[in-house]
Each structure stands twice: as structure tokens, then as C-alpha cells.
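Sequence, C-alpha cells reproduced for absentees:
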Amino acid sequence: MEINDSDKSLTRRQEKNLLKAANAVARSEFANPQREGCPDSETLSLLARRRRSLAESADLIDHIGTCSPCFIEYSRSRAAYKRRIRISYALASAAVKAAKDDRVRQVIICTPDKDLAQCVAGTRIVQLDRRRDLLRDEAGVVAKFGVNPQSIPDYLAVVGDSADGFPGVSGWGVKAAGLTFSQYPHLEDIPKDWRQWDPSIRKARVLSESLFNSWNDALLFRTLATLRLDVPVFETVEELWWKGPRPNFEEHCRRMKATDLLRRITSAGSQIS
């Protein structure tokens, strides 16, 4: 997915309407209600998430173009994937940009998602895990994954990330990945000869064969796991400054019967100088 200044991201409502229109066209122009010769849902999802190469999926793409149910399922999967990627890119871009401003004491990324751990920097950019009430800085990333934040894309490339739809490399688990990338920060740093691997890494031969037999896949997975930092998010941090609840906030709270939320936000807003 390409994101630049000229992109106009669809809102959730626009995306929903677009899919609704596409579904109507699909049903009217090509059918296959019996789903004859259709791939399973996982295959369609992998293609939607670009886990499958488009060049190697020509027959599958031709089938989607003539099958209404597959077209609908693929379109929904693709839209959901693009929405999630836009959010991750935006969070990463905003965190890095805000951290460059000397007026910002600390940037807290309020999600424990593994891919966003690559943005953590010292104690300046950290992750918040609300469920565990845990603030994870760079030392915390190393403690959890066994690698520095810069190695997270490589780490995820081999262990996989179900949220982003790629399975990783066969035979690689979190322990093997942590040990390996603690010694060799990136895929290209790993010796081709398993005999040259650090002795702390067990089953080096098996891991080496699996990795280098799936080398192109590993590079693709790393690309998928690497967050872009150039998404346009805000001009200055002043745009992020909370100035109190909006005029219609009370109406929304009453509609949701969230009186406690209204009380807490109103109290916080009154303390703004």
C-alpha cells in the first residue's frame, strides 16, 4: 500500500458504501452462487494481505474476477487489511514525529501491538499495555522479545504475525528468533554457514536451512512488518493538544448513558489553563 501527500484515505462509511456498491455490481454481473472451484477463505485472506505474490496468483485473480462470492470476500478482507495498515503507519509516523519536538517529554503509544515495538526508543517513545498496566520502554522490548526495537521487523519476519497475515518461516519460534537477532540484528547479518552461528543458538543447522530456503519469503515478511514513518499526520504537536471536550460531547455521553465518563472528562477539562 502506498501512502503519500496526495492520497485521500476513505472514511469507514465511504469504504463501507464502496464495498456495498461493488457487491451489488458483483452479484449482477457474475455469479457462481454454488462456489464451484473456489479457494478457501484463508487463501483469499492471504492474497488480500499481499501474502501471496500477485504474479504467482494469476489463476486465482482470474477466478475472483468471475466469482461473486469470492470477489465480495476478497474485497472485504482487502479493505479491513488496508484500514489496519493505515492505522499502524499513522501511529508510527506520529510517534516518531512527536518525539523530535523538544517540548514533548515522552511519547506513549497506547497499544501493545508487536509491530509497533519497532518504534520504541529508550524511554522517550514507549508502549502502553493497558490490560497489564505496563509501560514498555526499550529495555522492556528487549526483555519481552530478546531483541532491540530495530530488529523487530526481522524478528516478526521469521516468527510471523497473524494480525498482518504472514506465517513466518517454518521451524522458527520466538526463542530461536530472540537468540538469533540478539546476535545478528538483521537478516542480512546472519552467516550463510550455520557453523559460524553463535553457539548459544540451538539447532542452528535446521534454522539455517529453513531460513535460506525461504529467503525471499522472509524478506517479503520483513517488508510487511516494517512500518512506514512518512505518513502525513500533523504539522506541529500543538494540533494534538487537548483543549477540553467538544460542545456535543455531553450529548454523546448521555446517549451512551456514560455519565461517569462525562463527569471525569468535564472535571479534566476544567483544569486546563
In short: The beta strands are 107-109, 125-129, 134-136. The longest strand covers residues 125-129. Confidence is low (pLDDT under 50) at residues 1-9.
